[in-house]
Design goal:
about 240 residues; alpha/beta; Spore Coat Polysaccharide Biosynthesis Protein SpsA, Chain A; three-stranded mixed beta sheet
């Protein structure tokens, strides 16, 4: 294991089944030799298999809460990979290959924003996803993100309250980058944030593994139902091919 491989995820709520699948996949791939940090509030239950549960005083609004959690992560000058909880790992990250402080993942597909979902967003009328939210929060690596996320959090808090409930982190990130004209280092989306929208079979995993996909994430309103079966198929794939 590279000493640089640290993984953190944000999750709050009574039901912790989804992040349990994530943690199991990480420990399978890394053979229980990686640090996994669960960023959460004071009431969410601990998730088995994590290295440390970091409890913080967080906003009730999820977009604000995630930025608060990322801001207050105990950075230690090693790259930490922050991922969405509705994800599964297939391979090690190899973060030692990256020497810069911040790595983001850019969308690979553009689409017209639905300005009426989940509530009315006048900022999204006739706007595309790449125009207003080109970078995804589902995967990013940072060596020290305290000031980075602190600045984004300030922008988010100044936005209308609807952004505190939805979209605020990605939207504020774009505002921050435009304002500061920062050079953005990128992780390849097809390796570090492969988006899936259906059950992933053992055959699918073989192709994903062959294509060096390290993590998949289940994107969309109704895709979370596929994580359980996909997790079982992942276990079978790793064991069958002696990869776990």
């Amino acid at each position: 294991m590279s000493s640089l491989d640290q993984i953190a995820f944000f999750w709050v709520g009574l039901d912790n089944q989804i992040p349990t699948f994530l943690v199991k996949s990480i420990n399978l791939v890394y053979k229980n030799k990686v640090k996994i940090y669960h960023l959460t509030n004071s009431t969410t239950r601990r998730i088995n298999g994590t290295t440390k549960t970091i409890r913080l005083n967080l906003s009730e609004n999820l977009m604000v809460a995630r930025l608060q959690a990322y801001k207050n992560f105990p950075y230690n000058n090693k790259l930490t990979f922050f991922c969405d909880a509705d994800s599964l790992f297939l391979q090690k990250l190899n973060l030692f290959e990256y020497s810069e402080n911040i790595y983001l993942i850019k969308r690979s597909h553009n689409f017209l924003m639905n300005h009426n979902w989940p509530e009315f967003y006048p900022e999204f009328v006739n706007q595309s996803s790449l125009d207003i939210m080109p970078y995804l929060f589902g995967g990013m690596a940072l060596r020290d993100g305290k000031k980075f996320f602190s600045d984004i959090l300030k922008i988010c808090l100044d936005l209308p309250p609807r952004f505190h409930r939805w979209y605020g982190d990605q939207y504020a990130l774009k505002v921050f980058l435009d304002k500061n004209k920062l050079k953005v280092n990128l992780l390849p989306i097809n390796s570090y944030l492969k988006i899936v929208r259906e059950v992933v079979s053992e055959k699918d995993y073989y192709l994903l593994y062959k294509n060096s996909v390290k993590m998949i994430t289940f994107k969309g309103l109704h895709t979370k139902q596929y994580i359980n079966e996909s997790s079982i198929n992942l276990l079978n794939f790793l064991n069958r091919n002696k990869l776990s």
